[in-house]
Design a protein that fits this description.
Strand order of the largest sheet: 3-4-5-9-8-7-6
Number of helices: 3
Order of helices and strands: HEEHEEEHEEEE
Length: 192
């Protein structure tokens, strides 16, 4: 069991370190961009446009790794021997109050294979700042009816979904979610 805990701790530290390094690295500032597909860039307005007056959303129920995603998904993950490690939702080293991040993996196997799901309340002002920061670090912005997607450059993504998207944030009105792939975001439902 101690070995399993070390594996989960190492995997969690690796994901947090990679996300932090990717989200908060410095040294280059490409122009803000949007994309209709990973790797395809289109110049966007330099300032994100969320409503700066909105306030962080409140989850209608207490969140944990067992309630953030659908119960049938949780059951399937447990059935294959996976469990979750809950952490603070963070952009690099900066935790977001009230947010959670869950790393699902097999605790008995040393591996970099796992699933990340996270959700946090965030104000419009903070969301705009985080979006701009990520885009300045080379992440790709896409506006949609659901909100603003900010996706890791596909050339640096550790894992990709069927459409080629790696780690992706979705900024909605008063909240932000994150997953190791864009497709994974559809599972995150703090309202249950």
């Amino acid at each position: 069991m101690r070995s399993a805990n070390r594996v989960l701790a190492a995997l969690g530290v690796t994901v947090v370190a990679l996300a932090g390094a990717t989200a908060c690295s410095s040294g280059h500032s490409p122009a803000p961009a949007t994309s209709s597909a990973p790797g395809t860039r289109v110049t966007a307005s330099p300032t994100p446009s969320p409503d700066a007056t909105d306030v962080p959303a409140a989850s209608p129920r207490p969140l944990d790794c067992e309630t953030l995603i659908p119960a049938d998904t949780v059951a399937a993950l447990h059935k294959q021997g996976w469990s979750a490690v809950q952490r603070d939702f963070a952009f690099g080293p900066d935790p977001v109050p009230g947010g959670i991040a869950c790393l699902w993996a097999d605790p008995t196997t040393a591996s970099d294979h796992g699933l990340l799901y996270g959700w946090a309340p965030i104000s419009g002002v903070d969301a705009a700042a985080r979006e701009a920061e990520l885009v300045s670090e080379g992440w790709i912005r896409e506006d949609s009816d659901r909100g603003v997607y900010i996706t890791a450059d596909p050339r640096t993504a550790l894992s990709k979904d069927a459409d080629g998207y790696g780690m992706t944030y979705l900024f909605g009105r008063g909240w932000v979610s994150v997953s190791d792939t864009k497709q994974g975001l559809i599972l995150i439902d703090p309202k249950g």
